[in-house]
Each structure stands twice: as structure tokens, then as C-alpha cells.
Specification:
10 strands; 8-stranded antiparallel beta barrel; 2 helices; alpha+beta; 151 residues
């Protein structure tokens, strides 16, 4: 094999590696929705009552959502569920919540009562995205309107 053929083969191999490695990145579907959020307050639609939240956080990624109280006095715990977009970025669903364990879930399904402090009254909730500008996220379900800020 001559040097020219060897050089061309190595260049093709290098180009193929660059193309393959560049396509492996998992980017957010919508960076204005996915990320880490603090739940500031939520308003229940039935009675218009505003619930101020302390140390309640949401972590939203492509397929997973975590809701948790971090170092708060409420003892609400942490839950992991499935996250999905419903027909684009204008509607999202959070469902199949389970109690959080060390690095995953412990298999025990969350109850609707356990999710109330997080602004949800069911283990499967669909939200309309009212505002998603990267700094604020406002989600509205049949139960409540959630106001979150990025941190």
C-alpha cells in the first residue's frame, strides 16, 4: 500500500469518527423548559388559594422529572417520574411518579396526596405551558397554576 492510499484511509477514518462522536450529544428538546427550577408558588384553580412554597424544586430533563423538597421543614420527600412533551412544547405531561431512592426510585408509587405540596393532585398530570422564557416557567393544569424560576 502506498503512502497516498494510507493517508486517504486515515483521513476517512478520522472524519467518520468525528461525525459519529458529534452526533452522540443529548441536547434538551426545549431548553426553556428543561432544567432545574424552584417552585415559588402555585394557585389552586378550584378556590384561587395561593400556596407559597419553600425549598421545593423541580428537575426536568428529556424523559425524567424529579420533584423534591430540599432541606425544608415540610418533610415532603422526593419523587421521580416520567416527563414528556405532548404535541410539541406547548403541553407537557408528568406521570408515573415513584418515591426517590439514592440514585433511582425505590419502586413505591407516589400517592396523589404526596404530590399535593408540589402543585399536583394526581400521579399523572398534563400541563399547558403558559410561559417558558428560560428564566420563568409557568405551567397550568386542571388543578393548579405553577410558577417556577430557574436556579
Amino acid at each position: 500500500m502506498d503512502k497516498m492510499t494510507l493517508r486517504a484511509g486515515l483521513q476517512c477514518l478520522l472524519l467518520a469518527c468525528c461525525l459519529l462522536l458529534g452526533g452522540c450529544a443529548k441536547r434538551p428538546i426545549d431548553g426553556d423548559i428543561e432544567g432545574y427550577w424552584r417552585l415559588e408558588r402555585f394557585e389552586t384553580r378550584a378556590d384561587g388559594q395561593v400556596h407559597r412554597c419553600e425549598r421545593i424544586f423541580y428537575g426536568i430533563t428529556r424523559y425524567v422529572v424529579e420533584v423534591a423538597e430540599r432541606q425544608g421543614a415540610g418533610g415532603y420527600g422526593a419523587f421521580v417520574g416520567r416527563f414528556e412533551y405532548v404535541g410539541g412544547s406547548s403541553r407537557v405531561a408528568m406521570k408515573d411518579f415513584r418515591q426517590r431512592a439514592a440514585t433511582s426510585d425505590n419502586g413505591r408509587p407516589a400517592t396523589p396526596a404526596e404530590l399535593l405540596p408540589f402543585g399536583m393532585d394526581a400521579t399523572s398530570t398534563e400541563f399547558c405551558v403558559v410561559v417558558a422564557d428560560g428564566d420563568r416557567l409557568v405551567l397550568e393544569s386542571s388543578y393548579a397554576r405553577l410558577e417556577l424560576t430557574r436556579f
